[in-house]
Amino acid sequence: MKLVCTCIGCAIEASCPYSAPRFYLGEGQAWARHFTEDLTRENIVKGLKETNYGRCVYKSDNNVVDHQVVNMEFTGGATATFSMCGFTRHQERRIQIMGTKGEIRGEEGKIKVMDFVTHENTEIQIPEQTSGHGGGDSGIVRSFLKEVCGYNGSEGLTSASASVRSHLMAFAAEQSRLNNGQSIELDDFYKKLLVQV
Fold first, then answer.
1. Structural domain of residue 1, as residue ranges?
2. What is the value of pTM for the model shown?
3. pLDDT at 3 over 60
4. Could you tell me which Pfam families the record lists for this protein (predicted)?
5. pLDDT in tens, 15-58
6. How many domains in the chain?
7. What are phi and psi of 84, to 5 degrees?
8. What are phi and psi of 135, to 5 degrees?
């Protein structure tokens, strides 16, 4: 039998910055839907005792990265940086695309488009999203259904090849992390994975 240490009943839970009860019974109550549909106090506490969501972060075998920076260089010379940190009070996403004639920023429910030539700034308000990943999940499902209902031969947002490429980048980033930041050539990495299969 495996002993699982949970926040429930822990002597230092009240002062722990990673207290699961404080989060799931407080501002993060909606996230408790990951382990219970009924968001009563009784069911949330029961879920924290019986699932991994109540496990002690200090006595856990979870080895998922809690912060990282990934630098990417694409064939045409474009570069991208992905930065992720789990130590933030609020979950949020920001995207910034910088070009030679302008810049696009997406954050806090709006998209800002800045034109360096005309000096015009445009702000697009994004409707509040209620589904997972800031509305991205429902967008992917809509795209998939559109393809199923009227496929025109073009690659959509949810194509298998696009998903494989994005996952491949994530796997390569993890391989780089495990190899002390060694650069990974995506084509070579892909070929090695094919050999292993």
1. 1-63
2. 0.72
3. no
4. GFO_IDH_MocA_C3
5. 999 999 999 999 889 889 999 999 999 999 999 999 989 999 88
6. 1
7. -135, 135
8. 95, -10
How high is the pLDDT of residue 1? Answer: 41
11 domain residue, yes or no = yes
- Spell out the residues 6+ positions from residue 74 whose beta carbon is closer than 8 angstroms to its own: 80
Say how far residue 91 (Cα) sits from the centre of its chain: 9
Under a CB-based contact definition with an 8 Å cutoff, are residues 101 and 116 in contact? yes
Using DSSP's 3-state secondary structure scheme, residue 143 falls into helix
Answer whether residue 129 is part of any domain. no
Q: Containing H/E element for 113?
A: strand 110-115
CA 10/CA 20 separation, integer angstroms: 11
* 153/114 Cα distance (integer angstroms): 34
Q: How far, CA to CA in Å, does 132 sit from each of 117, 129, 135, 141, 148?
A: 37, 8, 6, 11, 22
Position of tokens 């009227």?
150
